[in-house]
Amino acid sequence: MSLAIVYSRAQLGIDAPAVSVEAHLANGLPSLTLVGLPETAVRESKDRVRSAIQSCGFEFPSRRITLNLAPADLPKDGGRFDLAIALGLLAASGQLPAASLENLECLGELALSGALRPVRGVLPAALAARGAGRALLVPRANAEEACLVSGLTVYAAEHLLEVAAHLAGHTPLAPWQAHDLPLPTASPGDIAEVQGQLAAKRALLVAAAGRHNLLLSGAPGTGKTLLASRLPGLLPPLSETEALEVAAIQSIAGSAPLVGWPPRPFRQPHHSASGPALVGGGSRPRPGEISLAHHGVLFLDELPEFDRKVLEVLREPLESGEIVIARAQDKLRFPARFQLVAAMNPCPCGYLGDAEQRCRCTPEQVQRYRSRLSGPLLDRIDLHLHVRREPTRLHAASEGPDSAALAQQVAAAQQLQQARQGCANAHLDLPGLRQHCPLGEADRLWLESAGERLRLSLRALHRVLKVARTLADLAGIADIQRAQLAEALQYRAPGESG
């Protein structure tokens, strides 16, 4: 047969569009033409494939070869098509049966010896292959990652000769049996290890229960970073759907194949991070820190030290839960449903309002420092808390409820929210806010009057209402009452006064 078709997958953001590798042999002077919008790494595959086929003892066709990667308008990059190209040439030249390739998708980079090397983005390809009803053949190093997708037949090999023996029926590969890995549990670190800070622990509980964004302000050494690191331990374990989404992002972003379910993300980029590092981008767009924090926590320490233009790009994903990266050829969407936790000092020297250290900053310096954060960004942070210094005690005993006890309260509140509205309180839209957060006339007028005194925007008042809904859920109360509104307003006042 002079024509063979092998199915593979490209990588386009978080998606894995189908690619048909068509190999055609014709009479004429020996040549090889590769078409279908291949980038440099794909164009170089013809030399890798030639050496791999010859190293394995097969005959490289001495005919006029045309390789088409369809669809032609989809950019193809990387070495992920090497295996499919090699199998297409062997099938088109009659050295392998073409019928064995009909219900199979192939991914893998070839070494000159014919060995298979792992590639990135196998998990999105596995999800797409399951949807197409085909089996997936990958390098052995990618087998555990592909098997995270249930209901998919995965074949794994280390060499082109193993694949050829399987397709020829000489030595069939057994479907890869993945280890039965449980979903990851809570992260290490107990909130009871934090000395004192009862108000901050309460704010962490509320933030975890409603998936609210949180801003911690306080002097150096008050435990802001330690508190933020304990938040993932209060959140419920990832569901299988959430774990697949997190793993898919890490699959296209990581340099090594996944070997199991990833834990709930906790990302802590340095304040010198650029815009593309935070939101994603590049000539071949890849996810940034906000997408790597999907279904997890994004912790920004020293918040005013970040470039203001970098921080402003957070405003859209905080509302929509995704980031759109526009390029001349296409627009790529990466999921970014993260929980923002930020920490900052109240002034440049850090000691404004501290009981032990005297602030050396002038009012103008304090104002310039705080003006690095825009009002619209602060409006999108639900909880503003000033963390005060606690007495220093070495080897102090654990205080208050531990993470396991608080996690039970968080899980109960989130289950209530899912049953009532299908999402966390922080993600309620305006119609959902009206439906699930009703107020009596007296409470509504009281909240509006308090908002005017605190000079809160309408968006900030909506955030207050969402926090009050979470407080009511934690208390097991069906309707929001004045006590929940008052506590929710307290989480806005520190952010206004610093």
Key phrases:
18 strands, alpha/beta, 498 residues, 2 domains, Ribosomal Protein S5, domain 2, Rossmann fold, four-stranded mixed sheet
Layout of helices and strands:
Layout: E1 3-9, E2 18-26, E3 31-35, H1 40-43, H2 45-55, E4 64-70, H3 82-92, E5 104-106, E6 109-110, E7 116-117, H4 122-132, E8 135-139, H5 143-146, E9 154-157, H6 160-168, H7 198-210, E10 214-218, H8 224-229, H9 240-253, E11 266-267, H10 275-279, E12 280-281, E13 286-287, H11 289-292, E14 297-300, H12 308-312, H13 315-320, E15 322-326, E16 331-335, E17 339-344, H14 363-370, H15 375-379, E18 383-387, H16 403-421, H17 430-436, H18 441-453, H19 458-475, H20 482-490, H21 493-497
Parallel strand pairs: 3-4, 5-8, 8-9, 10-17, 10-18, 11-14, 14-17
Antiparallel strand pairs: 1-2, 2-4, 6-7, 12-13, 15-16
